[in-house]
Design brief:
CATH architecture of the largest domain: Orthogonal Bundle
Helix content: 25-40%
Strand order of the largest sheet: 3-2-1-4
CATH class of the largest domain: Mainly Alpha
Number of domains: 2
Number of helices: 5
Order of helices and strands: EEEEHEHEHHEHE
Number of strands: 8
Largest sheet: 4 strands, mixed
């Protein structure tokens, strides 16, 4: 049974859901809440919120949470590739398609980003157009721009050591 709880952040109220001891959804205002979710804060949801708050304040660069996004095999490959984009950097849809050995699939990469159930934790905000311009984001381009600006600011003003801490639950 999915559990979900809402938290106030400096980019608005965000709901985080877990399913079977892994983060399964992050909902921005206006997003549809998973219909099978029960409002209940858990230890994992508190930890996800803590890491999210630390990320937003520039004190955390990589999340160490079990993630369980639901999607097709191709979507899961895209989301895993997104997690390899370093903090403070961006990548184009085309570059992700090429990494996946599907150079013509940049539109499918865009669809996978649009359907990413765990934005921020799976950093689809780091994806931009091939021309370097910001493109769509479920929470809106203002939030995408704020997330990228925060990462850039903290990279320049507060450099930290990077550690790979992503853990995927299959």
């Amino acid at each position: 049974m999915k559990k979900i709880f809402s938290y106030q952040t400096d980019i608005g109220k965000i709901a985080i859901a877990e399913d079977k001891a892994a983060i399964s959804n992050l909902c921005f205002p206006g997003d549809e809440i998973p219909p099978d979710a029960v409002v209940q804060e858990t230890k994992l949801l508190r930890e996800a919120n803590l890491q999210l708050q630390n990320y937003l304040s520039g004190d955390l660069r990589e999340f160490s949470l079990p993630l369980a996004p639901h999607g097709t095999d191709f979507m899961r490959r895209v989301w895993e590739s997104l997690c390899s984009i370093p903090y403070g950097e961006t990548c184009s849809y085309k570059e992700i398609a090429e990494r996946l050995k599907s150079p013509g699939a940049f539109r499918a990469v865009g669809l996978a980003c649009n359907r990413n159930p765990i934005p921020i934790f799976i950093p689809c905000h780091r994806i931009i157009g091939a021309n370097g311009k910001l493109t769509g984001y479920r929470a809106g381009l203002v939030i995408k721009e704020r997330l990228l600006a925060k990462e850039h600011f903290y990279m320049v003003c507060h450099p930290l050591k990077f550690e790979a801490l992503w853990s995927w639950k299959t």
